[in-house]
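Notebook B, p. 112. Complex prediction, attempt 2.
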Amino acid sequence: MQMPELTPNLMFFGALAGLAALTGVGVVALRDPVRSALSLVLNFFMLAGLYFSLNAEFLGIAQIVVYTGAIMVLFLFVIMLLNLGGQKQSIEPRDFKVPFSLLLGFGLFALIASQLFQPLMHITKVATPSDWGSPQNLGVTLFTEYVWPFELASVLLLLGLVGSIMLAKRRF
Amino acid sequence: MDSVPLVAYLGLGLFLFTTGAVGVIVRRNPIVVFMCIELMLNAVNLTFLAFARYSHATGGAATEQVQQSFMAGQMIVIFVMAVAAAEVAVGLGIIMAIFRMRQDVDIDKMNLLRG
């Protein structure tokens, strides 16, 4: 396969993807959990940009609102409550797991990449309609074909709500 | 986005997933382990969206089934987000409960269930 020519689209993708990969490594490599969390926030913003580049506008907005707005705030709140930031107990000793898991990671990457990428190399053109990610399309599909999974998701969220309240109130 | 090959998105998703998997093994702070799980979920979301976006390009007519399949990619991302929200709420509750009990959050020392 020849290298695709360097269009502005590709450069935009490269910038977002490079930052996403960098911040993803930062989540694992940074020792302070607060820095890991902030790195993950940046990573979610980059991923939202990538969703926009795939014309999935609604999911890009939902990514920012749900992940960075709700989930990461919850993470930072728990880190603050546990008072973990910048203390000695957040410094983790390095041991044999690190080279072992790096080897495992490289192996996983190489295995999937070698099997998956070759048959998909030729696909470079999108052909879905460009309004496939509009809130209208998503809403119609969600409330017609996917209405039962939607209702089940509401039950799951209710269970999560009740379960987390129970866990937070119980005295051990 | 035209002219960006599908494998570029898949490669990024695979890289982020692998990073998250390595992080789950390496890190000892359960909160960071949770963040790595979130990273893996997001990598899978990106892969689903990329496959759905490029699904027509594999050739063949835009039949009803193909129409459903590329909306299915977005639907599953929505459900993954909902499940992730519930999972984080419960998981962080468990971490808080364990921290109250032990005053320590090193998951390599949590061996209460060891036989």
